[in-house]
Amino acid sequence: MTTATASDSRRRLAGYAVAALGVALFAVPVYDVWDDTTDLGWALLPSLAENVSLFALAALLVAGGVWLARSRADGDHATIVAATTFAGTAATAALFAWIVVVQSWTMQDLKPYVIALDAVVVGALGSFGIGVYRARSASRRRDLRVERNRLAGLFENTSDAVATVELADGSPAVSSANERFRETFADPEAAIENAARLAATSLSSLLDGDHDGETTTREVAYSDADGVHPVADAARDAREFIVQFVPHDTDRGRTYVYVVATDVTEQKQLAREREANERLDLLHEYASKLVNAESRDRAAALAREAVEELYAPAAVRVVLDGEVVAGPDDADATFDTVAAVGDRGRIELAADLATRELNAVNVLATHLDDVLGRLDYERELADEREELDFINRTLRHNLLNDVQVVKARLQTLDDADDLVDHRDVLLDHLDRMAEFVQTMRTYTKSLVEDDEHVLRPVDLRPALEAVADGTRTAYEDADVSLGDVPEVAVSADELLEPVLENVLTNAVEHNDKETPRVHVDAERHGDWVVVRVADNGPGIPDDRKDAVFERGELGEHSSGSGFGLFLVRKTVESYGGGVEIRDNEPTGTVVRITLPVAST
């Protein structure tokens, strides 16, 4: 038997017991009417008039008992009422029995007026008790009214949506709701019913008293279009609530369920934004690590670590070129989410992600693809440099040795006057071959050692003086002058002098004047130094000023390899500087070489 059924049984038993007492008390006025009309000879009407109040009181007691049995009062409450009634009846009967016995035994006579006055005293005392009870009840009702008004004001002023549910005609119904609840939910009863269903609780059971007093809580989403539904299925415009079902039993045997809905949409949005920011910070952290990855396997392992940390404990693996390079190698594993790593492979995740979460994995996969592309390029470049270095060393060793042998043999023909012209031509070509090999050595060194290119401070003025002196010696007909040069060290290496020498040599060799003039000076501008090499040659057309720096580009009447100015620009750019060509006045060309000042 449930608690509610036992309480109903006690209530009905108590009520019908009181009603039975009322029926039994009908015997008093019935006996009095019978005695008046038989023994005393009274007429029936006066006797009924005398006992009408007793009939009415007995009838009221019967009606009260029936009402108590059929009311919704708690079984304990009904039992107290019945016990009090029987106790009061017994006490009154005992009192009057005592009075009758005393008068009959001691005085040998009954005094009806004394008995009536005793009844007045008993009535007065009973009235006093009833008055005290009414006063206390009025005070309790006043306190309850104040508390009810306070709670009503609290419900109206709270930011939560609050409603009260109770049984109406055997079914749960909303008996009251604050303004926030009515404004929030278009159909309050449907919203509460669906929320209770999602919370796996029964309003009928709670209202029947079948509960342990614990609050039931459930997080739900709500929109006017879709009503109450799970948060996972929430539309973009839905709001999120924490709904609490709080059962409350009154001392009158009634049960209410307070439904409190707290809007947590903003808090949830802030939490999601915080999680997104933390996820973004994590992606940035791993992006930095990926940039510094030195191998394909290390990059794949970092990508897997990032996804695991973002969406742990889901299984993650990275597949590149059809091979699992990071993560579990389980052919039967199921992976719900796949992010493509370009056309190289994919990142697989054993979790079904939302769109915004999948976007984060896709960003990571794209970054991994970029890093793998860089690693492939660096590996190919390293292979090419290794091959280039091998070719350079082989050419220098074999070709220069052969040049030296041929040159030595030609120099033994000094006494053969008829071969002097041929010898001089051959020696000139050998010098050009040696120069070309040296040029290729410089170019190869700038490429092969690009990643390990260590710059050092180089004093600019001594370097320019050495190059100017060398040019004067090589070209006696040229007028090479050195102007103002600041005392400054530039960030360069041992290739600086060959670069400057190449520029001055070009200024002399491509000059069409009888006396080629070349003037060199330099000027500092903050952290930079600009070296100017000006000549009086024919000049360079505007449409060829950039073209002369291209690989293999030959000037008019040039017999060179086309690598000179190309190597000049490549080397200067490796220093962090630049080279440009401008027109000289009134004629000729100015080559401007910008070099960074060495840090102290």
TrEMBL record:
Catalyses which reaction(s): ATP + protein L-histidine = ADP + protein N-phospho-L-histidine
Ranges that cross the membrane: 12-31, 51-68, 80-101, 113-135
Keyword Transmembrane helix: yes
EC code(s) of this entry: 2.7.13.3
SMART domains membership: HATPase_c (SM00387)
A single GO molecular function term of this UniProt record: protein kinase activator activity
Keyword Signal annotated: no
Enzyme category, top tier: transferase
GO biological process: osmosensory signaling via phosphorelay pathway
Domain Histidine kinase: 394-599
Alphabetical list of Pfam families matching this protein: HATPase_c
PANTHER family: SENSOR HISTIDINE KINASE GLRK (PTHR42878:SF7), TWO-COMPONENT HISTIDINE KINASE (PTHR42878)
Name this polypeptide is given: histidine kinase
Lineage: Archaea, Methanobacteriati, Methanobacteriota, Stenosarchaea group, Halobacteria
